[in-house]
Amino acid sequence: MSEPMRIRATVQGDVADVRILMRHPMETGQRKDAKGEIVPVHFIQNVVVTHNGRTVVDAQWSQAVSRDPFLGLRVKGAKAGDKIAVTWTDNKGDKRTDEATIVAAS
Amino acid sequence: MPVKRRLLLLLAPALLAAGCASFPDRETIRAGGEDAIAHAYPGMPPALVARSSQDASQKLCSKAPEDKLTAEEARQIVESARASIKYPPSGKLVGDWKIGAQLVANGAGQRVRDGRVEKTRENGALCANCHALDAKEVNAGNLGPSLMGYGAKRGTSDAVVKHTYEKIYNAWLYFPCSNMPRLGASGFLTPEQITHLVAYLVDPQSPVNRN
Amino acid sequence: MRARSVALALMLIASPLGAQGDVDGLSIGRQMLAEDNPGELWVQRGERLFYEKRGPRGVSLERCDLGLGPGKLEGAFAQLPRYFSDTNSVQDLESRLLTCMVGLQGFKREEIVANRFGTLDKDSDMEALVSFIASKSNGMKMNVPLAHPKEREVYKIGEYLFYRRSGPLDFSCATCHSDEAKRIRLQDLPNMTDPKQVQTVVSTGWPAYRGTQASVRTMQHRLYDCNWQMRLPDLGYASDMSIALTSYLNHRGNGGVIQLPGVRR
């Protein structure tokens, strides 16, 4: 089971600042393991971010994105209590969705 | 005498008894430290554990800053360093600066992982880790003085060449307890490798003197 | 605010200041990373591992005493290493966690030690637990005691070891860490004889997410890695030597305000 994402979403005015940390090896397919064998590609291909169910980001990633990727974005028309959901899907077909509630910036 | 001072004198024995500000004596600390070293590398091959044993010069050079090296101790270190110097069989102290250039940038050799020494063709000389050498090379350390223009500044006389060779072979000959490793004396570098480093430093064609 | 930091970073990197300018640009980049530190993923995993019933005995670590009483985590990192009467020894955080994982949960010491440093293929539980427990002292000052005679002895042994020259390269810790503004290649070296820098390293340096390692690394790993550089064999995990050095450095870092995990190259 994959490690949960860490999602922080704070709103100031009507703009939410969303920061997402994902745990994923993002293997490029060029690394050799301790035995000298190539570690196969294994990376997040697609990331979808929704705001109260509405898609705000639909990103296609490649293996060029680093291990344990970070995604930051801003969402207009947000308020405290709204739901942010993030789903990543990788090239092996593994998928993970995590949610967070937007809080007012302190 | 002031009240506070009298009070302190009265309380002193009690304070000492409580171990309020006392540390163990030097010998206890030394013995404890060596005991910690003896148990620091469990499961490691004895030949590698032996690396943590100190020779006489290393012991003298392990003082805390406030503990100064005495003149006699410095003399012992220099004498020991002088005795360690070995020259290449050919007697030729200046090798090929192009080989030297590769060696100065090579920071590998003799590192241990899981009880095994890393496999390398040869030991690097590690120079660029600590020294600026080629003015065009930004990626250089500053633990040691800059060696840019080394040969240009000093010339290439026999005296300069010999000094340079000896300094690299055993830096403690000219500066007891130098931070610089005793690269030749420890066997980390061969006399032949050192001749290439000498060339890299003194040859007018070397980037050290051209750039 | 972020756009401005990026512009500043680009300016510094592009400036013809040579090595010094590049080094400043690096620290700005690190600051930007620290705002969203991947180490937080280890903190959250460490929290789960702490409270989960695990090991042959199927218990959590809630009865683990890190010096302030069983399960008391706030401030625990700040006062380690310290003396523990149940083991009659001075212990750092990792050796104390070993004591608890073996003694309370029934894990085999060798298993935990084998997994002490995460690899690209397998995470380390210890690194996650250390990240979590360290973060529970955030905002507090380092406050390592030197009250018990054993704490004093171990501290002094740490100092002795700090200056001890050995190995094929004649290195001691002091060789690289006792002078101002030094660097190996372009890697800055903290001057561990400067109280302010010790405070910074000890309170915000370790544990840290290390980019080159793609994992959180701890003080035990830092000391292990130094031994590797010094051409010494693999430093024993939670060995007396490692605890003595940690004790010496952490106590001298007293007063530093904790903010962990950090982020490093």
Structure summarized in a few sentences:
The complex is a heterotrimer of chains A (106), B (211) and C (265). With 106 residues, chain A is an all-beta fold. Chain A is built from no helices and eight strands.
Name a few traits of the molecule:
heterotrimer; A: 106 residues; mainly beta; Immunoglobulin-like; 4-stranded mixed beta sheet; 4-stranded antiparallel beta sheet; 8 strands; 50% strand; elongated; C: 265 residues; mainly alpha; Cytochrome Bc1 Complex, Chain D, domain 2; 3-stranded mixed beta sheet; two-stranded antiparallel sheet; 7 strands; 8% strand; disordered N terminus
Can you tell me the overall shape of chain A? elongated
Distance between the termini of chain A: 33 Å
Poorly predicted sequence stretches spanning 5 or more consecutive residues of chain A = none
Number of strands of chain C: 7
Helical run tally of chain A: 0
Order of helices and strands of chain C: HHHEEHHHHHEEHEEHHE
Strand order of the largest sheet of chain A: 5-2-1-8
Judged by helices, strands and strand pairing, the structural class of chain A is mainly beta
* CA radius of gyration of chain A: 16 Å
DSSP strand content of chain A: over 45%
Would you tell me the overall average pLDDT of chain C? Answer: 91
Mind telling me the CATH superfamily name of chain A?
Immunoglobulins
- Shape descriptor of chain C: globular
Q: Any guess at the CATH architecture of chain A?
A: Sandwich
Give the distance, in angstroms, between the N- and C-terminal Cα atoms of chain C.
23 Å
User: Which range best describes the helical content of chain A: under 10%, 10-25%, 25-40%, 40-55%, 55-70% or over 70%?
Assistant: under 10%
Low-confidence stretches of chain C: 1-22
